[in-house]
Amino acid sequence: MAGRNGTSDGLSLEEATAIAEHAREGRLDLDDPEIRHLVGEANRLLVRTQMWGETPPTPRRRWKRRGLAIGAAAIVAIWVVGLLGPLLLHVAAGD
């Protein structure tokens, strides 16, 4: 769940909701710093979700989006080169 550097790589919305509910009902020992940190992270996730309407992106999801964007840009660049390359070669050879 929570790593040493304070980042979570897998706290889902359902888990955050359950953790926050258990903390509100007093079932968790908030004297333990790790549990207190996890409850804080769950509360932050719930507030962010309420503010923005979706679960904030995890590092894994960000890399997936970045990879898709780079792949799409590469496909467009190859298409442009394939479209304009022969035209430029024809113009250069015609002079």
Give structural notes:
The protein is mostly helical. It has helices spanning 13-24, 33-52, 59-94. The protein folds into two domains: 1-56; 59-95. α1 crosses α2. The termini are far apart.
Strand coverage percent? under 5%
- Count the beta strands: 0
Q: Give me the strand/helix succession.
A: HHH
DSSP helical segment count: 3
Shape: rod-shaped
Proportion of residues in helical segments: over 70%
Low-confidence stretches: 1-8
**What is the residue-averaged pLDDT?**
84
Largest sheet: none
The total number of structural domains is: 2
Radius of gyration over alpha carbons? 24 Å
Main traits of this protein?
single chain, 95 residues, mainly alpha, 2 domains, 3 helices, disordered N terminus
How would the blueprint of this fold be written?
Blueprint: H1 13-24, H2 33-52, H3 59-94
Helix pairs in contact: 1-2
In short:
This protein is mainly alpha-helical and 95 residues long.
